[in-house]
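Let us practice reading a record.
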Amino acid sequence: MRSLVLIAAVALAGCTQSATRYPSLLPRAAESQSLDEPVRPVPVATPDAALDKKIAELTAQLDGVATAFNAGAQDAEAKIAVARGLPEGSERWLDAQAALSTLDTLRAPVLTVLSDLEELAIERGTAGLPPYPALDAAVARAEALSTTQQDRSGALEAALAGA
């Protein structure tokens, strides 16, 4: 019993503090630590001649595709103007439909070039390389051209339908 009292007295002595000692009000290390994201330097892409060559080739293809599409769109516009108001199935209406079909065929290469450009960007990202400004600009240009062509084709289809 005496040893039990002695153990209890030692245990209670560890829980008491002197009346003159108070906890510090200074900030703790964890309280002064910033939770902001660390500032990381923005990686800069180094020039890549091989990539620049591929981008130039694909951009040249975009130019050719855009020229072909614009010529096809002008042809379709002329045929739609002639077919407007004519009944479906008439010879002029079928000519306009064929021109629209050709126009859709002319749109496909833009999507192929856009896919190739996006694949180059994905490969860079997978390799852990920073974005390449010329590649990003080419992708944006191909996307804009695709959207423009899609809108123009849709407008021509609506015009033939009489909307």
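A brief commentary: The chain is about 70% helix and 0% strand.
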